[in-house]
Write a structure and sequence with these properties.
Layout lengths: L11 H17 L10 E7 L6 E5 L2 H8 L16 E7 L9 E10 L2 E10 L14 E8 L4 E10 L12 E7 L5 E5 L2 H10 L14 E7 L9 E10 L3 E9 L15 E8 L4 E9 L1
Parallel strand pairs: 5-7, 12-14
Antiparallel strand pairs: 1-6, 2-3, 3-6, 4-5, 8-13, 9-10, 10-13, 11-12
Length: 286
Amino acid sequence: MDGSQRRNPLPRGRARLVLAALLVTLAGGGKLFQAPEPEVIYSGTAPGLEPGVTVIRDDAAFDRLVEPLDPDFGGERPDLRKRSVLLVVGRPRENGCRDTALAAVETRNMKAKVTIEERVPEPGCGCGGGARPPAAWLVTVSRLVRKATAETVEAPAECRPAPGAERPVLLWEGSWDHAPGAEIVADEAAYASLAKRSGLEGEPPAVDFHAHRVVAVTGRPRSNGCRRTRVVETELDGDEEAVFTLEEVYPGPGQICTQQFLLPKLFVYRVPAGVVRVRTITRERR
């Protein structure tokens, strides 16, 4: 065969079969083309960002979206001509027990599905520590990916106080003529005045005001001998706020009670020195 001669083209039916096989190979992950596996290239937090997943496909969007991350993204920017990047953000974490994990990232053609596991403590769990920003990840995926969805699943979290967390400690109970609510006592002189005004007999429990503060929690006035006040829950909401839940118990229908005015109940607690705010929640029970 001389050079001027050309090969005969494939028969039309055979050409169609070869093209179909090529398309199957491209779409199905054969040896000719195989989509890269998702790869986590960053793990940190995203202060101020909303939960969910965002597909990043160009350099300008990448620089803008990674700017809020903490710590800063310190790696080499992925080649966005070859890969897309997913920015995955979890829910805000309200306490030391709440946590977030990236459970799975799956891709199929032009779509990605992200599964985020939110680990949530059981109701009533006394979790110390303050609120933390949402967890965040950057994940590289196939350049074909243009859309992504996030599914959030919940799992029980271990009920544990955050490192260094300290619950309020009751120092004494009493009664005094004071408005309902709570106030912080921050030094020795104010503490001695509190003990005297509340009619405490003897010396009050010692408090190191370098490490602690004192909170005076006051209930409502009691109009008869059946009225009772008690603190049913104490917690630290972050490092700076203490929360006390009081239960005011009123007599039920037909209950015979001594008609007398009693001073509001007083509960004196020790809290960490970092507490600068105090809040009370009052529940009624009959």
